[in-house]
User: What shape does this take?
Amino acid sequence: MMRKRPFIGVLAIIAVLSFSARLAGAQGVTTGGLTGNVTDENGQPVEGAQIQLRNAQTGYNVGTVTRATGQYTIQGVLPNPNYEILVRRIGYAPLRRQGLTISLGQIRREDFRWPARPPRSRPWTSWRRRTQ
Assistant: This one.
């Protein structure tokens, strides 16, 4: 009787582990993702650019910020063909791409490069003429 208890305990542990492994394998992949780089007009990485991924049909909205290397990653995105990406950074005009498809189990790559910035205008001066 004493020898049967450890044997039954080992069998119970094996059964539990094999059952939980089957459940984990049955879950599968249910999302996709988005990654890319953001660079300036000279090809240099832009740190701190805001990336916003939005789907107007579903109301899904998620954002991230680029790293020092200009790279961004968004994971756990539900597959859908109607996504829009908006990239913003102070000193740059916003960049937008629409109609993007995120596929099941795929990481979509979208790189952004800002065009050359227009030259800065002179400081504001008064239009009034001086009178003497």
Notes: The first strand starts at residue 32 and ends at 39. The beta strands are 32-39, 50-55, 60-65, 71-77, 80-88, 95-102, 107-109, 112-113.
